[in-house]
Amino acid sequence: MQSKPQLLAWLTCDGVHIDPGSGKHTILGIFSNIQARQFPVTHPFMIWFMTISDVSPGKHSLKISMGLEGTAPQQLLERPFESQSPVHRINLINEIRNLSFPGAGEYELLVEIDDELLLATSLTVSG
User: pTM score, two decimals?
Assistant: First the structure.
């Protein structure tokens, strides 16, 4: 039986530095909400960093969608990735540029791997 991918970490941050010598990841500027003076607002750059495990060997697809609570989510990102073994931890660094928010509210984020929901969370945008 194939195991279901497990989410070990999900962070919204300003940057990720990977040390060339050790391969360690340094996470910069973790945040969980966005403040805006006026709407609509466009956030210039953020990273959605995630670590997953229990992913069967082979090629896979990651999709991330977002929508204001109560609206249909729009797909923001789709990207391939590969797993060598279910015991490996896979770090995925997803750069999000010029993300627009029409108004304040809770924006629902849906993270899917191979069309299976892995995470439903939200990002708060306030004025």
Answer: 0.93
